[in-house]
Amino acid sequence: MSKGCWKLIAGSGTTLAFLLGIAFDAHAQGSITGRITAQATGQAIAEARILIIGSALSAMSAEDGKFTIRNVPAGAAQLQVLRVGFQSTKKTINVAAGEPVTADFALNVAVAQLDEVVTTATGQARKVELGNSIQTLGDVGKKVETSPVMAMQDLLVAKAPGVSVLSGSVVGAAPTIRIRGISSINLSNAPIWVVDGVRYITSQGANSAGQTPISLLNSLSPEEIEDVEIVKGPSAATLYGTNAANGVVVVTTKKGRAGAPKWSFSAETRTIDDRNPYQAQYANFGHSPDAPTNSIRCQLSVMQTPKFSIANGAKCISDSVTSYNYLTDPEQTFIKLGRGSLFGAQVSGGTEQVRYFAGTTIDNEFGPIQMPAADIRWYDDTLHVPVTNQMLHPRQQQKLNFRSNLTAALSPKLDLSASAGYGKSSNIIEPDNSLIIGLLYVGQASYGWKGCPKGTEATGCGMTGADSKQYYDATGFPLHDSNGFAPGSIMQYVWTNDVQRFTGSLNTNWRPVSWLVNDGTVGVDMSAGSQFHVCKLNECPQQGATARVGNVTAIQENRRNFSAKLASTASRQLTSSWLLKSSAGAEYTNVEDDDLRTQGRGLAPGTSTLGSTSTFVSYSSQQPRAVKTFGYYLQEEGSLNDRLFLTIAARQDQNSAFGTKFQHVLYPKVSVSWLASEESYFPKLSWLNSFRLRSAFGANGVQPGATAALQTYSAAVQSVTKIDAQTGSDVPGLTANQPANSELRPETSSELEMGFEADFFDHRLHIDYTRYDKRTKDALIALPIPASVGASVLSLQQNLGKTRNWGNELQANAVLIDRRSWGWDVTFSASHNDNKWLDLGKDSSKCTTTNGQLTCADLVLGAGTTTQQHKGDPLFMQWYRGYTYNDANGDGIIQVSEVKVDSALSKIAVGFAKDVISIQNGFDLLNKRLRISALFDYRAGGNTLEGNYFQCSSAPKACRDSQDPKAPLWMQARAVAITNGTRIGGTTYTTRLGYFVPAQFWKFREFSAAYTLPPLVNRYLLHAEQGSTIVFGLRNLYTWTSFTGVDPEQNYGVTSSEVTQDFNTSPPPTYITLRLNLKY
Amino acid sequence: MSMNRNRARFAVLAWIAATAVVAGCDRVKHELLEPQNPGLVDPSAVGSPVAALALRVGALGRYKQVQSGESIWQYGGTLADEFKNADFEAGRINADMRLTDAAVSWNYNGVTQSRGFVRDAITAMKKYNPDSSAMIGELYMELAFFEMTLADNYCNGIPLGHTAGEARTNGAPLFIAQVYDSASNHLDTAMALTSTSTAATGVYINRAARVWKARVLIAKDTANLPAAAALVATVPTAFVYDMTFSSVSGANGMWQLVNSTARISVADSFDILNGVPNTIKNALPFASSNDPRVPVINGDLASPKVVAEDQVTRPFYVALLFKGQFDPLVLASGVDARLYEAEAKLRANDIPGMMAILNSLRTDTPRPVIGLTTIPAMAALPTPASAQDALSLLFREKAYWTFGRGQRLPDLRRLVRQYQRADSLVFPTGHYFKGGEYGTDENFPVPSSEQVNPLFSACLDRKA
Fold first, then answer.
1. Are the beta carbons of B456 and A737 separated by less than 8 Å?
2. Burial letters for A835-862: b for 16+ Cβ neighbours within 10 Å, e otherwise?
3. pLDDT for A837-847, tens place per residue?
């Protein structure tokens, strides 16, 4: 056995001796029973948490408000009751050995109080004890029932300061979630997810160019969530271990409540309306002076004007200008109303010993894409091909979720919880982005007019040369886009994405003595993904010679995650003032994935399977690849008079991705929380109810890739030519893949956060402010290697950089009016985040020697490219060539010579949003039976590469910028800058700068009106209990923006440089929902 | 009560001890944390004769770098007059317009990196299979091929660094003549390793090495033509050294770009600009000449319907030389050898001798095979009246015989560099069919990504 092993066992033995020593101090025991009620109404309060401060003992109140805590040491016990929406209450009880004691509590309503208990790595803890900020969404079940929440991302958008969510635009698509900005250029900036104690895989599924990737998060249903907590940074996430540096989203699913079975049924119908302002395309018809009889499209930049003649450079004489918007033409557009529905049923109940919850949800949706009427007629009347359901509605999702949770009190000292969730999602996704054959490409790339002048069809609508298009397909079907691909053809693509997923965990909570709680969880999260991409024989657009011979792509992806963790916490009242809690824990995770991709081409009529293809095109496979982490930690917490809380902790991690010379990493943590307003010397102010100061420092890391440290070779079969023959033999071969990188270690982030929480005006106003400053060292930088040295890679990762990421977060909850019959509450959240490179290392190729001293310049990554990393700059600074324009001849048209593009790149801005604000107004009306809620959110500080750049610079260049003489000068100028540019020294310089525009917006994100049905309706019409509601909801109602594209959240995806693009991708649609929730 | 308490203490002890053991023992931890990826091959698997052979096969697979994706064979062909860009992307259009951009590499990285993969294979073969002279010779020949490709297509100023183990040595920019010298030296090694071989493999490799040695000698200086002709004299006309493809190893990159995705069209000597026929000065009519060495079909509304990426390039000509996705591409051939001999005749002012060789290729049987296409017999050509006409004819014939094989651009460069023909009489010139004018670039710049090499800043010059 190794020296390290003995040392640790010895250390653990010492701890054990300490704990056992305390054990001898055990007391005689009694029990406490009681009932929790509301002060104002006397009604029982369920789900209140009753804690005995300084012990591991706690209980939850049942439906009738009753609770029991057993094995309470005899003597004085301080009880605290915590419940969302009520003021926390404390009471000291004397417990006699062997005798029950009664302690009833009547709670006062807290109009602006948030969750008081949160889940931490060591178990549940009162929020007041924590020095760091943890955001709880609170009572998610009710939020889901009473607002338009279709997916997990909807729960998070604009709900928490510092949390930025860019939703996927297509149903089921992967959202981009960032907590407190970004810190890394090479590793993920996404948070990790933990569901019921199990690490939950959220990475997106595989996709092919042109299809929106579907998120694995999609298989988690909001309907089954009880609470979501957002652990924001390393200071809070230290004990979650490696990979939690970007924050942790902790999800707790619904649990059973003691009492008779409680049934709830939900039914929702929704309409999906794509109301986005798609832009029209323009055609500036003209003719060339060289060939007056031939029609061509005039580009403004070379169009003849009174002040710009053929003699001085004009090449086109304009005759007329038309515009056409394919997507607003009722006959042609494929944008139609989508439909969706949800049906759910849940039941919970049980006894104090055994509680259960079970729920299921079926959620189906047709997106707002439908085959145009003209195309349906084309299929019916000309092609005589049946229009299938998939062709008619090429964006669909069907989801089935089932969850069952069971909690059993096997003895007064031992609880066992089992949680099992199954999700199945089946998506059909239309080719929507990037591809020329994508629907949105077709929709946004018309010629600028509809149809041809009569009689000109056979001659290409009278156009010639570069503008001579294929305006009609071979059957005579008119094509209005620039590619000659009918939407109906594109809709023949079949792209399915099915995911089946099981997540299960088993948790034991064992309290052998009153001062010790042991918590153990094991769980698995397994997903099996299956994708098919099929174009049958003679189906799909004719792109290339082999497009319509039929092709099949099949992708199978399996991901498995095993998690196990143990945590023990011992409490001891050291003195009458000091309480100590000691925790020790260990955690192991093993995340595996494997996949298989195959592709074949050439299908017989009617066939669509890989096995029926005539030519096997390609395959790739990934055998099981695992990333394993093992960590253990110690934590010591001390509280003084239940007002001042100090925590010291450290976690040590080892990971299979760390290099062979780097065995482990240590993450420390220190935090302090001070409930200052409880101090006797704190001024007693009538308007200030409580005031808490808090601060925390902690570290955490993000691991490099699973095998990033290993030297590896790749195997691939090569065809080797035969002697004097025109054929080859397939022979297995090897090539060097990756050099060894034994020094590799994780990127380590340390964060200091400080803040306060205060309640004002009889708890009507709650303010929570946090300032954080996160420093990341050992940032992985891919040092470039010149290709000419013939190394197997073009860069090698090294831990060189340092980054800083800092910001402010503010959240205010206010109850402005709280009358018996109506009320008004407001939640305001705001955050600002900045980041920059503190260090990038030195560039060994740029060194000078002065007086014998070698000095090297700072390393610059990406020099000469659009994304550059410079010391002192934000991460992923975007560099474009600047340009200026001046309508020198005053003709209202920007000619090529009137735009000057710089030859050098200059730094511009970043893509990610820095400022996020949300405001939620809630109104309770009609004796508080009707609740109206409106959520607005604002995002700014980032830029998006607007997709119009492509339409303007590529054929047919039919965007307004380059065709409409009435287009503003700035619009014309940016098209000239990207298309024509400026020629300097024999080289032409162009720029996309004009299309890299601020993605700043205010959005009316959510509106809901939830009406609680009157008792008479419940009782006699629905035979339901009180609490049944009917809800009308709207999502993405309206956008106020100066963004020049369709929508600033139109999301082609966040690139590796954290820049969003709206490149031919669906913008977010508006959801209109009507939902009925019945309780029995 | 006391028994319960003791039981509790024991349980606590066991719980914490288990945690401690798991936390502390290295062996347990290593078993829990061992990196796992059975899909990857670690270094322990490559130290054997069998592994060396596998590394050799892997290195031979790197030939594909010249034609895989948007690579140097295809876009060298657009910079010359073999292909016309049918794509909408500005960088590709610019290459076609002879307005090259150092930001675009045309797989420069893949080509020059391949030298390292080949060197690794040579090292392994020498260590574990030192007697496999022909195989080692073939690898030296491949090393020369990549250097020759760099010199053929890129500007003066090509660095040739190298990597040995973890040590990387940057190379200073070299003139293309120096790069050809390096290739020549490696071909000498290849020929030496196979010169005495009577085995089929040795003879086969030796012939290919001779063809490339001759090509390199000629590219270096036309004064080497007699020596080049002598080198290839024994190479049969029917000889071919191919790059082959299969469903397992991957498809032919020329087929993918020209036939499948329709991103480049076979070029012609004229096109349509604003509805008016536009002559592309100096360009050969590859598409419209109906030459059996460059068979094409006009891909328009007629069958088979082919749509160019940009929907602009009309007519779009599909090359039938690569009509199958796994059709082979010719790396070196006996036809090449005859063409070098013909050029040597021309240099010796033996125009009839040159014509005899050229006409022999056009008329003799058995007929040469390019890829899977057997070239039918063609009419003999009349003898040109002047040496300049003969030179034009020779390069025209060579252009058809070597279509799409990365030889047209270096030949146009040679016409400028070695035969002192003006650029305006050699490269495509005049109006470009998508608007604008052809530029004046005669090669590709070494891409700016190479600037991470501290010895390199830019091309030494852009001369042909």
1. no
2. bbbebbbebebeeeeeeeeeeeeebebb
3. 999 888 877 78
Measure CB to CB from residue A734 to each of B54, B242, B439 and give the nearest one.
B54
Q: In sequence order, what are the residues at sequence separation of 6 or more whose Cβ sits closer than 8 angstroms to the Cβ of residue B290?
A: none
Q: What is the pLDDT of residues A749-767, one digit of tens each?
A: 999 999 999 999 988 899 9
In angstroms, the separation between the Cα of residue B388 and the nearest Cα of chain A is: 31
Mark yes or no for CB contact A788/B201 under 8 Å: no
Flag if A656 and B36 touch (Cβ within 8 Å): yes
The tokens for B407 are 């030889």
DSSP summary character for residue A239: G
Separation CA B57–CA B107 (nearest Å): 21
Q: A513 vs B8: CB contact, 8 Å cut-off?
A: yes
Handedness of CA A640, A642, A648, A651 (dihedral sign): positive
CB contact B451 to A (< 8 Å): yes
Confidence of residue B436 (pLDDT cuts 50, 70, 90): confident
CB B262 within 8 A of CB A282: no
CA distances (Å), origin A496, targets A406, A425, A605, A774, A815: 34, 10, 20, 41, 47
Please check whether residue B248 touches A, CB under 8 A. yes
- Whether residues B241 and A792 touch (CB distance < 8 A) is answered with no
Above 90 in pLDDT, residue A512? no
Q: Which residues are bridge partners to B413 per DSSP? A: none
CA atoms within 13 A on the CB side of A21: 6
Pairwise CB contact (< 8 Å): B41 & A712: yes
Residue B38 with chain A: CB contacts under 8 Å = 623-624
DSSP letter for each residue of B422-458: -GGGTS-BSB-TTSSB-----SBPPPGGGGGSTT--S
The two three-digit tokens of residue A906, written as one number: 């200059």
pLDDT tens readout for residues A984-1033: 876 778 899 999 999 899 999 999 999 999 988 887 777 777 789 999 99
Contacts of B94 in chain A (CB under 8 A): 988
B367 touches chain A (CB under 8 A): no
Q: Does B13 touch chain A (CB under 8 A)?
A: yes
A:B CB pairs within 8 Å: 377
Nearest to B61 among A516, A588, A716 (CB): A716
Structural tokens at position B436: 């604008």
Q: Phi and psi of A599, rounded to 5°?
A: -145, 135
pLDDT for the residue numbered A13: 45
Highest mean pLDDT among A333-337, A614-618, B12-16: A333-337
Nearest CB to B159 within list A737, A786, A863: A786
* Stretch (H or E) spanning A978: helix A969-979
Q: Which residues lie across from A31 on neighbouring strands?
A: A100
Q: What is the pLDDT of residues A10-53, one digit of tens each?
A: 445 444 444 444 444 445 678 889 999 988 788 888 888 888 88
CA neighbor of A543 nearest in space, from B174, B316, B233: B316
CB atoms within 10 A of CB A25: 10
Cβ neighbours of A875 (radius 10 Å): 25
Contacts of A308 (CB under 8 A, 6+ apart): A314, A889, A891, A893, A895
Sign of torsion, CA A1040 A1046 A1050 A1053?
negative
Q: How many CB atoms lie within 10 A of CB A732?
A: 13
Question: With an 8 Å Cβ cutoff, are A788 and B112 in contact?
Answer: yes
Closest Cα in chain B, distance from residue A882 (Å): 18
Please tell me what DSSP assigns to residue B379.
P
pLDDT > 80? residue B227: yes
Which residues in B lie closer than 8 A to residue A732 (C-beta atoms)? 54, 57
